[in-house]
Specification:
Elements (H helix, E strand, L loop, with lengths): L4 E7 L3 H15 L3 E7 L2 E6 L6 H10 L4 E7 L3 E8 L2 E7 L10 H6 L15 H9 L11 H12 L8 H5 L13 E3 L3 H24 L2 E5 L5 H4 L2 E7 L6 E7 L8 E5 L8 E2 L10 E5 L5 E5 L3 E5 L4 E2 L8 E5 L5 E6 L8 E6 L5 E5 L7 E5 L5 E5 L4 E6 L5 E5 L10 H7 L3 H4 L7 E2 L5 E6 L5 E6 L2 E6 H6 L2 E2 L5 E3 L4 H4 L3 E2 L4 E7 L4 E6 L4 E5 L5 E5 L7 E6 L5 E6 L12 E6 H8 L2
Parallel strand pairs: 24-29
Antiparallel strand pairs: 1-3, 1-4, 2-3, 2-7, 4-5, 5-6, 8-38, 9-10, 10-11, 11-12, 13-14, 14-15, 15-16, 17-18, 18-19, 19-20, 21-22, 22-23, 23-24, 25-31, 26-27, 27-28, 28-30, 32-33, 33-34, 34-35, 36-37, 37-38
Length: 589
């Protein structure tokens, strides 16, 4: 995904007049803006939603007769501007006017840009020629990233504080911004900040109360500064040795702090226990652990194995691959080499005893994401596309595919379905931003220890399938043995609802119970003995849960919580550990 920039440049030093106009626009359009101080005769304004809405600058121009530039970069694929003078739209430009839909030659000419109309703003006569060359129609292929064109445009006009957005500034990306300490927010956020502060304090008190009951053990944020934290993500797994969890923190994009491997263990103190691993790259991943816990595998410039007892890497393994899983008996490690693009994907079984390759399989078709190794070590479950499961048979090598689909053939058309959601009995479940019609997706999948059942986390909810029936399927997945959909009205109308998204599922074999989580932010349960289901843990300050892991002794459960979409640019993910045994007592058998 490319960058999104959006700023509105107002030619004036009159902060008071600009502020008064922007307060009226914010109220009229129900938007938020960040407003900077005058720099070189221009005041920069950054509207919410990356400043992509041209109606905001149009509303500003109605109230201010000053020269106004609205500069936009969409997904690094389009640079556009709107120029207002005397309250009227005088000129406009779009580097790719037919990006979304094909447009006529007349419309293309309209968006060609005519800098001669604002040449009086240019610092020197020669600048006009440079601007015309920058905006020429034949330059589309010269810019891999359209932010480069926007940067050059702003420089030629002498515009500072142009290349950013509301969201980037709020998340702390302010390196090129002048006078940040003089920026103001419109509307005033004093009351909102006070309410957030009060809510945060209430959340802290609630967590402390849950800690006293023993249900909530603790939570951990990325071990870095705030700027790096929002780009951090952990890999983690249950640790058979300590009864806790091993956590690999690293920055998932760009460069920042050094990756760190920690051990979280009872009594769950806030201070983490470093494992002493020195990494070769800035973003190692694919952390897996041996069934006995004495060997850790991860990808870090190829496959790396770390011997915990010797506290050093095993240098006998030289394989350009990533680990997938240790076999249940601990004698083999399954790895994957190749990226599926330049190099074909191959799956490799390595003997941990002889440290030699036992088997290499190259599937004939694209395998997609790897999900889980079957307990028999014979099958590998993959996801070729978002709504498909792929099954690799290591004894016969072919890749079979089955499609996950639960479309309701009797559902109304989309607009009728949307109108249905406005009925009073359904309205509470149906924010219009949370629905749509599309292909159901498989988010994750895991096997029961005996390999007889497959548990699928999907965008329609939780599904449990017979593995034997799935193997015998041709094209379509069989009917689910168990099915949980939190908002069943969605299935009746054939709509995808965000609150039905399940991201992960884990199985407690002893209790024959499934735990699952997703966008709603609760941990839910399904008892396979009697079909009973409900909320297992209802955390305060709920946010989407991407991953669940039970500790090796089934005493604790660790979950990865990510900020909701509206906070993703300014809040980091966090790990929480809950006491599974206490939660079981609270829920009952």
């Amino acid at each position: 995904m490319g960058a999104h920039f959006g700023s509105i440049q107002i030619r004036t030093d009159d902060v008071s007049s600009v502020r008064k106009a922007l307060e009226a626009v914010a109220k009229e359009t129900d938007c938020k803006l960040l407003v900077g101080p005058p720099v070189n005769g221009w005041i920069s304004t950054f509207p919410i939603d990356s400043g992509l809405n041209e109606q905001i600058s149009k509303a500003i121009a109605k109230r201010l007769s000053n020269d106004i530039f609205h500069l936009i970069v969409h997904d690094d694929s389009i640079f556009a501007y709107f120029f207002y003078r005397g309250g009227r739209l005088v000129d406009r430009y779009n580097s790719c006017p037919d990006y979304f839909d094909e447009v006529s030659d007349e419309e293309k000419e309209l968006y060609r840009g005519h800098p001669v109309l604002f040449q009086d703003l240019l610092p020197s006569p020669g600048t006009l020629t440079k601007l015309e060359a920058l905006l020429a129609p034949d330059t589309r292929d010269k810019f891999i990233y359209e932010q480069t064109r926007m940067r050059q445009f702003a420089k030629l006009l002498g515009l500072s504080n142009a290349l950013s957005s509301y969201e980037y500034l709020q998340s702390g990306e302010r390196t090129e911004i002048e006078g940040w300490n003089k920026f103001i927010h419109i509307p005033d956020q004093s009351a909102e900040k006070a309410a957030r502060k009060e809510a945060a304090e209430a959340l802290r008190r609630k967590k402390m109360e849950l800690k006293k009951t023993g249900l909530f053990c603790n939570e951990w944020l990325p071990p870095c500064n705030r700027k790096d934290a929002i780009f951090s993500i952990p890999d983690y797994c249950a640790d058979p040795i300590t009864g806790g969890f091993l956590v690999l923190w690293r920055r998932c994009v760009g460069f920042g702090y050094s990756p760190q491997l920690h051990c979280l263990r009872p009594p769950w103190v806030s201070k983490v226990e470093p494992m002493g691993v020195n990494f070769l790259t800035t973003s190692p991943d694919e952390l897996v652990i041996h069934p006995k816990g004495d060997l850790i595998a991860f990808r870090d410039k190829g496959l790396r194995l770390w011997n915990r007892s010797e506290k050093q890497p095993d240098h006998d393994f030289q394989l350009d691959a990533k680990p997938i899983a240790f076999s249940g008996d601990g004698e083999m490690l399954l790895c994957q080499s190749g990226d599926g693009f330049k190099d074909p994907r191959k799956f490799i079984f390595v003997s941990l005893k002889s440290k030699t390759v036992l088997q290499t399989v190259q599937p004939e078709f694209s395998t997609g994401d790897v999900l889980e190794l079957h307990p028999s070590n014979r099958f590998l479950l993959t996801r070729p596309t978002e709504n498909q499961l792929g099954i690799i048979d290591f004894q016969s090598s072919p890749l079979s595919k089955v499609v996950f689909s639960e479309a309701n053939p009797n559902a109304p058309d989309f607009m009728t379905a949307v109108q249905e959601t406005q009925q009073p009995e359904l309205r509470a479940h149906w924010p219009l931003t949370g629905i749509g019609r599309g292909v159901p997706k498989i988010m994750n999948a895991h096997f029961s220890p005996d390999g007889k059942l497959l548990f699928c986390a999907t965008t329609l909810g939780l599904r449990v399938y017979s593995w034997v029936e799935l193997l015998a399927s041709t094209g379509e997945m069989p009917k689910a043995k168990f099915s949980i959909t939190l908002i069943p009205e969605a299935l009746q109308l054939d709509l995808i609802h965000s609150d039905n998204y399940v991201y992960d599922v884990v199985f407690d074999e002893e209790k024959n119970r499934l735990l699952f989580s997703g966008i709603p932010g609760t941990i839910n349960f399904l008892n396979l003995n009697d079909g009973k289901s409900g909320i297992f843990i209802d955390p305060p300050g709920k946010s989407p849960m991407w991953k669940l892991t039970l500790s090796h002794d089934r005493k604790f459960i660790c979950c990865l919580c990510t900020p909701p979409a509206e906070d993703r640019n300014n809040k980091p993910p966090r790990l929480q550990v809950w006491d599974y045994q206490i939660a079981c007592k609270n829920v009952g058998p």
